[in-house]
Amino acid sequence: MIPVCRLEDLPKGESARVGTTPPIAVFHTDDGDLYAIDDTCSHQDASLSDGWLEGCLVECPLHAASFDLRTGRPTCLPARRPVRTHRVTVDDGLVHVHLVAEQDATEDAFEEDSAA
Amino acid sequence: MRTVTVVGASLSGLYAARELRAQGFDGRLVIVGEETHAPYDRPPLSKEYLTGRAPEEDLALTDAEEHAELDAEWLLGVRARSLDARGRTVVLGDGRTVSTDGVVVATGASARTLGGDRLAGVHTLRTLDDARALRAELTGGERRVVVVGGGFVGAETASSCAALGHTVTVVEAATLPLVPQLGPDMAAVCAALHRRNGTALVTGASVSALHGTTAVTAVELTDGRVLPADVVVVGIGAAPNTAWLAGSPLALNDGVLCDDGCATSLPQVVAVGDVARVGGTRAEHWTSATRQPRAAVTNLLAGRTVADARSVPYFWSDQYGVRLQFAGRRREGDSVRVTEGRIADGAPGEDGFLARYERAGRTTAVLAVARARSFTRARRELARDTRETREAHETHGVPA
């Protein structure tokens, strides 16, 4: 569990970058939801926390690939592979990220498909 | 249309093929490519690939699954030699012909060279084969590298060579590199990146001769200087690949002339990417090559121009560990001011900066150096303002 920041320091529409290896991006959507995904675009080296947040989608600042924050899946090219998603909790006003185990994001997505 | 032939198997050709399928074309799809490689991404060639951070497989633009979905006939390793007068037959370099109902011209551009005899050690950097050859020369210990041309390919190559520990000199014919793209003030700031990172920058001089018998040994400049060199990289721009269209009815002038929707003078022929002059502009930008195909394919399938392919130009460049991003249409005489971050001693400050180009109180373009988040917003605003201006023109500009 990694502390990110205080909730009041991450207003709606904003994002924060956690300098873990690999780095994590945490988003606070306009609807008030918190999401965390791997920060590095699965297409090429760019930081998704610098991207454009719209609803539950973030658009990469370099080539405009878009990812669904809920699933980590790309919604358009040029990205073809998902990014990992991580659970976010707020404890006592402090935002925490719970890293998923080191596991291929593709396998994650596949398991979800099988369950559906 | 029963058959559509995409001539060119790089970024814009692949995106056109995808769009054809996405927009419901279920006929025969032929893709002709001069290179033997499946479509790959060129921007990393001068950066991650050259420095060895990205292996070749990272460059692939497609995978087996997509190949199956596209269901195309790939004719790779062969160039198109001509297009007949009606635009219905593509003749290939090996004499084969492809009869077709529609054509997407996506033949791209080729690196300009210095001409003269080919000496070992002299390279261009445009294709994967170019990059393989250059990379092989840069792995055998320290070399003296002269990069001819200070544009984006030249600057990125210089940056990669410096990162690999080589001694690098950039030779630029103009008084500063990148003035046409960035204007004089910001060009000066970006030129400082070379010097700050140990790369020598020679400006106002061009190459008068290459020395050497079989391999290059030195570069002689018009000002009389002689720069010893083991490796020379020529990055002096690219010329659109239109020679194969010379006998066709298509209008050519530094590219295939197209309307705002990538339509050519033949209704069943469209052009996209580096080879296309769309609405008067030929943009050699990655983003243009990926965006134009949607409108181009719509117009091809409609048989007339119903969609506009123009968008706010955008390009980026990674040099010496910082990312430059530029969007918009800067014109000569636009003023420029730094609105975030700062410039220190004529070079980008530690936290980068955002600069706005302005004319008559309106932002015409934005440049960010190591400032991606601010750039994302500024680029959005610019696209919105451009769209609103265009719509206002379309609504009110033409008297009824």
TrEMBL record, chain A:
One Gene Ontology term of the molecular function aspect: 3-phenylpropionate dioxygenase activity
SUPFAM superfamilies reported in the protein's UniProt record: ISP domain
InterPro entries from the UniProt entry: Rieske_2Fe-2S, Rieske_2Fe-2S_sf
Source organism superkingdom: Bacteria
Keyword hit for Translocase: no
All copies of domain Rieske, residue ranges: 2-97
Keywords: 2Fe-2S, Dioxygenase, Iron, Iron-sulfur, Metal-binding, Oxidoreductase
Keyword check for Metal-binding: yes
EC number: 1.14.12.19
One Pfam family hit: Rieske
NCBIfam families hit by this protein: PRK09965.1
Protein name: Bifunctional 3-phenylpropionate/cinnamic acid dioxygenase ferredoxin subunit
